[in-house]
Design brief:
The protein has one helix at 2-13; strands at residues 27-30, 33-36, 38-41, 43-47, 50-56, 63-64, 70-74, 83-91, 94-100, 109-110, 112-118, 121-126, 135-141, 146-152. The protein is mostly beta strands. The strands form two sheets. Strands 3, 4, 5, 6, 8, 9, 10, 13 and 14 form a nine-stranded mixed β-sheet that branches.
Length: 153
């Protein structure tokens, strides 16, 4: 009897929602719909004491009206714990993230909360008190120029 109760409880914990069609790409969750984030390579430029990471185009095609977006992520090569979320500035028709020696000049990094749903399947949530302001954002694995971009409107 105890074994049957344990199995029933384990079955309730199994994730039954949508699944990302591609590994190592975050997807915005809108109910049961998944929206793939724009995948790009940021171009790195040095300016005085700053490093600029520039992505072509003024806006991402992946968009959400939700200030506290939730993402699904199927991990293969990228660890979900290595993902960082940055606000992007739009300048000269491009989006950019600034990493400066003086922290006050750097683009704002936002906190993410990662929850394991199953083996290699993760829920990633923005962990900010008031959520994200309208604008452009990128999620990037630490130490790479790979970016996954989206807009909050």
């Amino acid at each position: 009897m105890l074994l049957a109760c344990t199995i029933a409880l384990a079955a309730q914990d199994k994730y039954n929602g949508p699944r990302p069609p591609k590994a190592d790409v975050p997807y915005l969750m809108h109910a049961d719909n998944l929206i793939e984030l724009d995948v790009a390579q940021a171009r790195e430029e040095q300016k005085k004491d700053d490093s600029l990471y520039i992505v072509s185009g003024a806006a991402a095609t992946a968009r959400t009206p939700v200030a506290e977006p939730i993402f699904l992520f199927q991990s293969d090569k990228i660890s979900p714990d290595s993902l960082e979320l940055y606000a992007m500035e739009v300048k000269n028709g491009n989006r950019q993230v600034v990493v400066a020696k003086k922290a006050k000049n750097s683009s704002k990094q936002h906190r993410l909360m990662v929850t394991k749903l199953e083996d290699k399947l993760y829920r990633i949530e923005v962990n900010e008190g008031l959520g994200l302001e309208n604008g452009e954002y990128s999620i990037s694995p630490q130490g790479t120029n790979d970016v996954f971009c989206f807009s909050v409107y």
